[in-house]
User: Fold this.
Amino acid sequence: CGLRRKEGAMLNVEDVNLERDEIFVSKSKTHTQRRVPMNEGVLKYIEDYLFNAREMLLSSDSSEGALLISNRGKRMSVGSVDYALKQLIEQTQNEQIKQSCTGLHTLRHSIATHLLQAGMKLEDIARFLGHKSIDSTQIYTHLTESANN
Assistant:
């Protein structure tokens, strides 16, 4: 969904609106709130996680409201989210992904670049990413231009 690491780690279950296909980011780096849309694929994975995997991670006496739960039944830290992505990369059969320097911020750049290439306006991408200034979003224009050359 293009969230920053800390934004993802700070999400609560109540921030996920499955009926509206969106995530509410209430705690962002820029101290602004925003609603981030989820596509069908993301929605499917979030639903599966919420109704299956997450329940298995919670202990019977837990009242944890965090969306992302560690194997200890508590909110995942930013470092734990990074580690989980590294574990997923190690498990893939795709050697190109294994050899790449993929991290959470790389995924944030990727979604922004894909949105730009699909024709989304830079102003809308800035809102999607939670940038206060469009100048912060301008870097994706340079990435797209260099990829096209």
User: Anything to note?
Assistant: Residues 81 and 122 are 28 Å apart (CA to CA). The chain is about 50% helix and 5% strand. Strands lie at 16-17, 22-25, 34-37.
